Amino acid sequence: MHKSLFVLLLAAGLRAAAQSPTPLTARLDKVSLSFALGANGQPSYSIAYGQKPVVQPSRLGLVFQDNQGFDGALTLTGSEVKDVDETWQPVWGEVKNIRNHYQQLTVHLRQKAAPGRRLDVVFRVFADGVGFRYEFPRQQALGNFVVLDELTEFALPADHQAFWIPGDYDTNEYLYTKSRLSAVDNSAQVKSSTEIAVRVAPDAQAVATPLMLKADNGLYINIHEAAQVNYPAMQLHVDRASHRLTARLVPDAVGSKAFLHAPANTPWRTVIVSDKATDILASKLILNLNEPSKLANTDWIKPMKFVGVWWEMQIGKSDWKYANSLDTLDAKGQLIPTGRHGANTQNVKRYIDFAAQHHLGGVLVEGWNTGWEDWFGNWKENVFDFVTPYPDFNVQEISDYAKSKGVQMIMHNETSGAATNYEQHLDTAYQFMNKYGYPAVKTGYVGRIIPRGEHHDGQWMSNHFVRVAEMAAKHHVAVDMHESVRPTGLSRTYPNWMASEAGRGNEYNAFSIGSPPEHETIMPFTRFMGGPMDYTPGIFKLQNYEPTGKRQVQTTLAKQLALYVVLYSPLQMAADLPENYNEHLDAFQFIEDVPVDWDDTRIVAAEPGDYLTTARKAKGKDEWYLGSITDENARQQPVKLDFLTPGRRYQATIYADGKGADWQKNPAAYQITKQVVTSKSTLTLRLAPGGGAAVSFKPL
């Protein structure tokens, strides 16, 4: 061959290789990741589990406001692969030690049209899934920039069964729908929802993450995100024909998605996969993708159980507000009390007494501060100042009384959506908590957000929630955020951010149609994937607890006990009234005993929407606690006790559904039995329709 012809052919081959490089791969155990750059310069990735496709070749990219984003032709400039295997210990959590083992593939790209602009795509492949994100290195050609859209896709190979809620910009408090992806249509669900003050995005095929999927070939797949900081929440648009999911970011007040400055990065997009449902719940992939704790000292962060002046307002026994309105004044210009105000000194002392008697760490009080007469739906900025109590709430007296009883008070700060007002008062509010000895605060963001036009799940509010966690940490206060963006593992980075709501909790049984028995069997596979939830379990009076008498909690009493194990939170509420607990103190013993911090967790059996059985080992003790729940179907659940220490004998106290128990007809029937067991024993738990069982194992 002529030398010049050879050189030309070689050059042509190199150009072709640059345009269509050999796929770059990373793998760990059964999970493999492949990245490719197409002939048109478009990047894509795919994921497999063994020989089964999880995500077929799917697009990557971002659209910028200046039309010079990474949505056009890109060039591959290099790549690296590295292996990481380390172990870290969370401040609190479901296990004592977490292994962080992955293979990382970093792909370096640049624009063809603007070669000075560079983008890295970083993939981390774990034994149970993949995380990936976009990183923008420091570069002269990219300073401030605005993201208009993210083009990330998840091309699924089939019409999977999905457990989903609508992609609402402002709330995640929906019931889950189980359907094929081809049947996703949230328009009917949103229109029929009269119990949520929604402002849903105009996309009937958008769903929220975490999205749980079950494939007909036996795979379980969970799609979510990790470390959502300085970026809006990701929702997913479902193409019902192709089963292709496309990232849809929550916009800001002017329709943009994110304002960034290089160096910067997006959150991690996460795909957790296994052929066992139990592995999905055991995954620590999302936590591992978050940064280590930013707090130098975490000794002050203490998990706790608590009771509170809360459920009595939900069911209409008392009220948050002190007066009927701001206009109800007496001759001296003082508010005239309604006589139904729950947060009064004597009532709060009653809860403190109950907490002290049953060794519960704290008491939450809502409605203690002025402003509740004019707080909801008004879009006003200065409703609350977070430090002024109502006349019948003596802050000092209550704090002193709680201290004398060995109980800590938990603050409540409702913002009515006025996040800017809260930020102006943050330091003052947290100094107030320090002065009166409040170690934790429950925040709330009911209503439309101020700044006007911003959304609960947008970039501005995502940053606000981080600012609150940081301010709380400065004052050694733990935070439980309600109406917040759904969690993405940031409790690792800010371990004082101990819980969130961001989902449909037990409260919906008080004022709406409630939640069906399957609800709690779906939540661990969806809402709980990113972090703990303040679900408020422990309701004992399951019928005839509110004025109409028509509503009921759609579980048995034994299932309410089991929720303390299967639904994890380091801040766990015993949500019912003291008088309702006093009628069943033998059953309440489990709530008194069950820990909120753990050394080990085993997912014994699970199937989303059907059943779940979880066992956990108490922090620093050889005690185990087990919770087992079912949907509307009765079940017999065998449980091998091989998690117990071999050679030791334990007393198992079993809190089970009683004879004839049924969530509709006989929810309060329960029985308590005891037996001696070892690691070689097997229990068979009989779960009633809508029922459950809770078991404590204490060494003899």
UniProtKB/TrEMBL annotation:
Glycosyl-hydrolase 97 catalytic domain residues: 310-502
Entry keywords, A to Z: Calcium, Hydrolase, Signal
InterPro entries: Aldolase_TIM, GH, GH-type_carb-bd, GH97_C, GH97_catalytic, GH97_N, Glycosyl_hydrolase_97
Domain Glycosyl-hydrolase 97 C-terminal oligomerisation: 597-698
Signal peptide feature range: 1-18
Domain of life: Bacteria
Residue span(s) of domain Glycosyl-hydrolase 97 N-terminal: 30-292
Cofactor(s), names only, from the UniProt record: Ca(2+)
Tagged with keyword tRNA-binding: no
One annotated GO molecular function: hydrolase activity
Record's subunit section: Monomer.
Stated name of the protein: Glycoside hydrolase family 97 protein
Lineage: Bacteria, Pseudomonadati, Bacteroidota, Cytophagia, Cytophagales
